[in-house]
């Protein structure tokens, strides 16, 4: 098996539980909290969703016995998790990304591959791959998405902000000649995209409608208030890179669906329609939905105009899909398979050089995600650990003052060629689902040799705030100050970072 990345800092583990019973929970106990609280709640919610589906079936429907079997398997999985059972190999279900998990399990001693002892990042990714197998092994539930209903409901509840943003970006398009007279300042769509991360499904367990509208507030006043909670803001550096591009390619590594994806598309549209910097992008099913008046009854004209323009981008190749939208769940998607493995991004050269080569064609790559898990309101279970940001910095316990570039480094890769700049935006508290959005660019440094050796240097991480447990790149004293002034700053969802790693010569 290929040699995988081992960060110099210790990785997070469910064995870290010292502060689990304290409020707020500290960063070291989030992994333990996830196994004890968050994962069991996710399994319980899936059981409830399938039960609702079963109640709609007739007694002789062939889906009925299969649905009951899935519920039984989910209950058994929840029981095994609570009993700290050994992680079992993923059965042969004909889907992609099976061997990567089973090979790793086969090489791991039994005492180290239990739910409370296994590497946390591995266990997180393994759980979702195991859930996929429960449905893939059936005849009538193979393409069933147990999270789809929640996704749609959350997306529909975002209609107010969606309509308003449509009007905003349409206005930018109308005034693009005027905009192009002054590119000195970063434009608001980039900030909107950052805070769009705040609407993650897994974080909305305990949010009411008013909370959601507040999260999705747009406009100068709202963004000015949000800017106060940016602990690191490299947006100007990102904008400077974009201004240096001409008909360039930008890639967005997607973190989620719904409103968050919508803000990705708004940003992509702005870059392609209003600037000379970028000429290509990627998106998902959202576009077709925008043209359905029954889905979003408000702001019909603005949304229709937006939808038509986006479909035009797709037809002309200005928006590009990394994989066809008709790709079945679990299917082998070629280079896209990497995003749903357990590997850190430092493992790309060893585990997926083809994807790395594709990413090296980009001038700028945007990674969005959450820095860690969120402590739920009102003590409701709902902790969320985002794989996207964790994979980016190796799932390691870096000191908060560790330079972002240093956390990206994979020792021994100094001779590896690199692609574009990288931007990492984290709003700590999202579910990374491994989908990739290319906005005229994927992640890496083009033709450069990096002395520090990270295959994906020149990156920006946009992290709008939920959990900043896995944070680095902060100035000295920031974490200590917040520990006193806002003890729940790591988990409240109010803080964010925009981290930029430049292309290296």
UniProtKB/TrEMBL annotation:
The lineage of its organism: Eukaryota, Fungi, Dikarya, Basidiomycota, Agaricomycotina. It catalyses: beta-D-fructose 6-phosphate = dihydroxyacetone + D-glyceraldehyde 3-phosphate; beta-D-fructose 1-phosphate + H2O = D-fructose + phosphate. It comes from the Eukaryota. GO terms for biological process: DNA damage response. Keywords: Hydrolase, Manganese, Metal-binding. Its EC number is 3.1.3.-. This is Sugar phosphate phosphatase. One of its GO terms (cellular component) is nucleus. SUPFAM superfamilies: AF1104-like. PANTHER family: DAMAGE-CONTROL PHOSPHATASE ARMT1. Subfamily III proteins have a conserved RTxK motif about 40-50 residues from the C-terminus; the threonine may be replaced by serine or cysteine.
